[in-house]
């Protein structure tokens, strides 16, 4: 095994305090919203109808979703772990505004590693003689927050023998991030195992009450640290179906995964949609809406034609996003223009959404990465807030923000996160 340190900035980056607090204040609202979407079949069906015609990955997820609903859900405890990501859009007058990039409802990573980054930056500041500044860095422990959600779900599942499983990739590059969360569970005397899709496929079975067994062990909670990137092997889809049919708590279940698609995000920005999804929560709706950037549907029809033409004429205003997760898939500038030009009259267009491009104010920092030369770069940051909630039947028994993540990258990279080798871990220094 070859082990590298996780990449990080030499210095913490400044973040406007009001925007940081705004991001925390809206997290419980986003938890509520994701949970509501995951229970709204009609909304998911309608919103994803155009996407599943052209996007095979989403279509397969959707097929499992409907199949499991037809059989009837065995799962009664629901656990959501998400991360809402933001950038700070710099207006013409120089003031910054909080703008949501996306909400990740599956495999929201770096909660573990980032529980350590504040310590690193505190030390660096002390070495530089900045003791006062060092003392101002906030404590941050998403590993603990996420583990408390998993532990709650485990407890409600109600079997001391049941085991928590982390579903991992064959080659796992981010194992230490997951270990931080895992260790928090062991500290609470909850057993954790790591398995791959293949193990579930080869050894998994359900009993009459749809409890899940893998190699004799019963499982209660599945934490997907994988399952995002298409295409999956046919046997992985089989395994996913088995998991979804089971009584075990999936984090996320397939409905919650669908709630995190970019198409759903775009639909949420339509006037009236939030009101339908969260009736009786006008304040939550206002807080949520205040973070939205402009989002546009490329569905067939006049509305889609118009925005496609606008983007072709002025590509630097927009980002073109396919229904993919994991970084490195979005299109910008000339490339956006070329692709949109090519697909503008074909149904393929509907597998994308358009979004206003957020333009943050860059700042100087050093990005430290194994085997990379050390140089000062102009950087921009993306703030993520972790959210965790647990629902039993219809009752929300836990709903909280569970810590934050700051990722920073050089401005020459339009796209890409830490896993894609572009962004590095950072700590907010509130100003
Ligand atoms: P993914 O699912 O691949 O993570 P994101 O929507 O998070 O997709 O986009 C990946 C990256 O692209 C983000 O981390 C951000 O750096 C950049 N990005 C995404 N949307 C925008 C936007 N509207 N404006 C500017 N940059 C964006
Ligand atoms: Mg992202």
TrEMBL record:
Pathway assigned in UniProt: Sulfur metabolism; glutathione biosynthesis; glutathione from L-cysteine and L-glutamate: step 2/2
Known EC number: 6.3.2.3
Matches recorded under InterPro entries: Glutathione_synthase (IPR005615), Glutathione_synthase_a-hlx (IPR014042), Glutathione_synthase_C_euk (IPR014709), Glutathione_synthase_N_euk (IPR014049), GSH-S_sub-bd_sf (IPR037013), GSH_synth_subst-bd (IPR004887), PreATP-grasp_dom_sf (IPR016185)
Cofactor annotation remark: Binds 1 Mg(2+) ion per subunit.
UniProt cofactor(s): Mg(2+)
Listed GO MF terms: ATP binding; glutathione binding; glutathione synthase activity; metal ion binding
Catalytic activity: gamma-L-glutamyl-L-cysteine + glycine + ATP = glutathione + ADP + phosphate + H(+); gamma-L-glutamyl-(2S)-2-aminobutanoate + glycine + ATP = ophthalmate + ADP + phosphate + H(+)
Keyword vocabulary terms for this entry: ATP-binding, Glutathione biosynthesis, Ligase, Magnesium, Metal-binding, Nucleotide-binding
UniProt binding sites for ATP: 102, 262, 321-330, 332, 355-358, 382, 409, 415
Pfam families reported for this sequence: GSH_synth_ATP, GSH_synthase
Function: Catalyzes the production of glutathione from gamma-glutamylcysteine and glycine in an ATP-dependent manner. Glutathione (gamma-glutamylcysteinylglycine, GSH) is the most abundant intracellular thiol in living aerobic cells and is required for numerous processes including the protection of cells against oxidative damage, amino acid transport, the detoxification of foreign compounds, the maintenance of protein sulfhydryl groups in a reduced state and acts as a cofactor for a number of enzymes. Participates in ophthalmate biosynthesis in hepatocytes.
Homology family: Belongs to the eukaryotic GSH synthase family.
Subunit description: Homodimer.
Name this protein carries in UniProt: Glutathione synthetase
Lineage start: Eukaryota, Metazoa, Chordata, Craniata, Vertebrata
